[in-house]
Amino acid sequence: MNRLKTALKSKKIIVSDGAMGTMLQSAGLPSGIAPEEWNRTQPDKVMNVSLQYFLAGSDMVLTNTFGGHPIKLGKFGLANEAEKLCRLGAELARKAALSAGRQDGIVAVSLGPTGEFMKPLGLLEPGEVKAGYAKAAKAAMDGGADAACIETFTAIDEAVLAVEAVTEVGLPVVATMSFDKGPGREGSTPSGYRTMMGVSPEEAAKALKEAGAIAVGANCGSVEMADMPEILKLMRKVVKIPFIVHANAGKPQLRGNVTVFPQSPEDIAVPMPEVVKAGARIVGGCCGTTPDHIRSIRKAVDALRL
Description:
By secondary structure, the chain is of the alpha/beta class. The chain is about 40% helix and about 15% strand. An 8-stranded parallel sheet has the order 1-12-9-8-5-4-3-2. Strands 6-7 form a two-stranded antiparallel sheet.
């Protein structure tokens, strides 16, 4: 039985991990290179991030493959290395699980958007985009991934293609989109939650479930953990499946030329009862979160009477 599916059946709440990129930056990742390249050149540093999350209480970690699509890696001259880097990313996360004594630890291959538009808005062929996600997912599965996390999407057509591609490869898929909260407009949801491409939580949940996702939800964006219950309640109006939340460490703030996420480990866990009440079965962090944030979320989840 697949580790993720088993956990969803046996565990009330699965605690996921936190940010990968900012953790690698703190370990010395320079700007201008693909983080996935470190799966080959700095494997110990990448594995250590996942190890810290498992030791902090994560049941599931995401691989260092967010930009692992060949089109995305092509911007760094690494298109032909995509499958190798995705396989290595999964191997490192699996090694971290074993090092932490977590034989039941779930490894989910992280796959984000290509960063380009598909036709008719852009030049990319949908078939090429879908094939790239399938190759990345298959390589990660060969490296020991149990599942895939399709995350941080704003365009529903690309997100649907990614979910379909990974599902066809044979990996269970959880999928999240990134929402911002605006003042609302005529015909929108009362809350005004939308992705950058205008997708509502209801539209996202319905489309992603129909594409094959076994859990749907939200990550990143300009919202924080306290916003997640409202987003999940909107999704719950149209789908009846598990929900997943990966929240930033607070709303992003620009300080000088640097974007920071100011929320403390203690504060990010405060809304956890409401997040779980809204239907979240997988909870974790996104930008700015650290093992300390996950440790705090773990403590809050364990304190819930479920």
